[in-house]
Amino acid sequence: PRTVYLKDYTVPEYLIHNVDLSFTLDEKNTRVVSRLTMCRNPASRSSDTSLTLTGENLKLVRVVLNEDSELGDKDYLQTPDSLIIHEVPQQRSFVLTIENTIDPKANTALEGLYLSNGMLCTQCEAEGFRKITYFLDRPDVMATFTTTIVGDKDRFPVLLSNGNRVGGGDLPDNRHWVSWKDPFKKPCYLFALVAGRLECVEDRFTTMSGRDIALQIFVEKHDLDKCDHAMQSLKHAMAWDEQVYGREYDLDLYMIVAVGHFNMGAMENKGLNIFNTKFVLARPDTATDADYENIEGVIGHEYFHNWTGNRITCRDWFQLSLKEGFTVFRDQEFTGDRTSRAVKRIEDVNMLRTRQFAEDAGPLAHPIRPDAYIEINNFYTLTVYEKGAEVVRMLHTLLGAAGFRKGSDLYFERHDGQAVTCDDFVSAMETANGVDLSQFRRWYAQAGTPVVGVAQHFDAAQKTLSLTLSQHCPPTPGQTAKEPLHIPVVTGLINRDGSPALCRLGENEAAAEQVVLELTQAKQAFVFSGLEEEPVVSLLRGFSAPVKPALNRPPEELAFLLSHDPDTFNRWDAGQQLAVQVMSGLIADYRNGAKLAVNPLLIDAYRKVLEQSWDDLSYFSLLMTLPSELYLTEQMRVVDVEAIHHAREAVARALAEQLREPLETLYLRYHRDESGRFDAGAIGRRRIKNTCLSYLAQLDADWARHWSLQQFNTAKNMTDQLAALTVIVNHPHPARQQCLDGFYRQWRHEALVIDKWFAAQAMSPMPGTYERVLGLLGHPAFDIRNPNRVRSLIGAFSQSNPLHFHAADGQGYRFLADRIIELNGLNPQVASRMVGALTSWRRYDENRQNRMKAELERIVSTEVISKDVYELAAKSLA
Ligand code: HT7
Ligand code: ZN
Q1: pLDDT at residue 509 tops 80
Q2: I need a surface site. Which of 286, 737, 816, 854 has the fewest CB within 10 A?
């Protein structure tokens, strides 16, 4: 397969100004007529007078140049992925009309035009438009689109595309037509079409300039009662973007369609977002609090793309983080403002530190602006999205909120309507603030997670604290030597009595509660003055940079920070690091066959947390939650999944035994019958209650088993019901099967709830999980063609059940490789997402390494292998 390089970028040879599309719909044979108004790109230096359009799986019917001359075989050449027209006008604009047919029913890859539960819909990012018609399928070709759709009135009563509806009417043979016009220039990856039997929920939003916007959410009829939260979220997002970024919506209509078969979360097509049902549908009895929060976040994310992605798009796909990193940062801030800032930051960092850091340390590590790819779909990664957002966040930290806003204003002003680069974004920040960000730009080009070393020296006579920070970044594939990065390290100081110590850097600086240390050199000292005693340093507050601090704090100091750090992130993190220290000791004990005795300091620290009173109960729950097995995996040189699991269980059990009373009291205090309101208070009460329940389930006690069963049977909302089911499925509970069967019967008509049913079983640490997962593959509700089902069974087992997936006999690996090979032929995008669980093979013992490697080799030698799967499997073996 061909590798595409950033360094080879050249401007397009031709431009397309206007696209007139017409679709005559049929499930197996849709006819597409595309009329392109084009011209030679004056900026292109190529002397080639032919025109190459991309296209895949298309049946070409005819090609007409300038309305009248139909081209013959000798005028063009068709290849499996292109149409080359040998000669087109060079001096003036021309019109090219192409007619082709496509087969949406045969499209199991869910890219281009495909069928989902009888509905026709599109997915064009990144390169799906070429599966609809021949085109210049690249993001720097921006055109205005008019789309006419013709379809049967019964099968396709609703016909949607981008922009505003400009016409429609009846046709013979029970057919009808609708025309849509999108006045904004856009790349073809933002094109969308939806047709089907859909119902609509409608609302309105008045923008800051007084424009009235119609908001519509289209779903299948039985889901009409689950759109309320998505609609509210959309209105909140629209208001937030006006308040925080001064950005207003531009069309008269904003449509969202929910589909059951979708490769990712959602897609920001101009004026017509298409969403995975998972990120739209919610009712308190069917969706958990986490689902509600995710829906708000994803609705916000896609809405924010209207400016960061659509009005200003990417020049090429290497610049993906330009729109994704920035938009993730925007959605994180939106959720932080809407819910709890402290909790949101912790959740985001948790994901970054467990999953993105692993990606950055493995064979698939790449910069947030990659410089080469075989299949661009493989680069919708945690690095491009989440680390990309951290890079934008660092700019926000370095420039301050006001400086960042000046920079974003200039970015929107300079580049509206353009396809630009990450560099253009940084330049706008630079110009607007009069700063030099040249070193900061390295974050875009350098892969890997920097390690920041810390050494401190207190001079009692001088009353100074000297903090020496250093940085180094381990090599990553293709990048051995790394250069120092520009790292903002937000730092505060705490006196030994727990009060904040003021930070004064140098003699003349004003004292502040915290400072941003700008680490730019390999090693750099910062001197704080005016300190009466040696303070405790609170470093990297709010996780101000995506780095690993190399700090070996004594457990007493961590316990101190857990009690006193005013920074909510660092306070939580101190508890996490303390637990990691204790668990690391237990992991070693387990490996040595020693008894697992939990350090009382940890129990004491957790007791103190329990004894305090907390306003934010969700934050309180996070303080009470132990680091995950995946996070512990990241801390080990050679991963021992069994030792990690048993050490963590031992700590959870010890906490449950020794803190039983306060945990019980808390559980009972919040065990109210709540209907599932989505407000911070109710969410917090459910969260702390369910955290307590999962601790109490560690006790081998009938009353605890009874509590979980009772909660399962009486829960009025999905958060409580699923929390109880999870506890039951994760322990030897006598009612396990009965609950699973009851849950299935209750929810068999709600696909998203059945996804939870599959996932809960796939993630269970109980013996026999592998056999159950294997059995579930044959369950009538399992469908390998549905990505949500694949993720809930195969994804959950391989990515969230380390104990069983990494069983020493290799059965988990074999199971996954078999599924990947099967999926490879059906849906390469989903197949390649599953490869991730095998790519970290170097982190395991020799036996597991050999077995994982053997499965990767089996995958690579599959006879017909997609570019998607090949790229990840081959690169991880290299
Ligand atoms: N911009 C979108 C990324 C995307 C995608 C979405 C759905 C299906 C396939 C896809 N390929 C790429 C989603 C986003 O980041 O908002
Ligand atoms: Zn996005």
Answers
A1: no
A2: 737
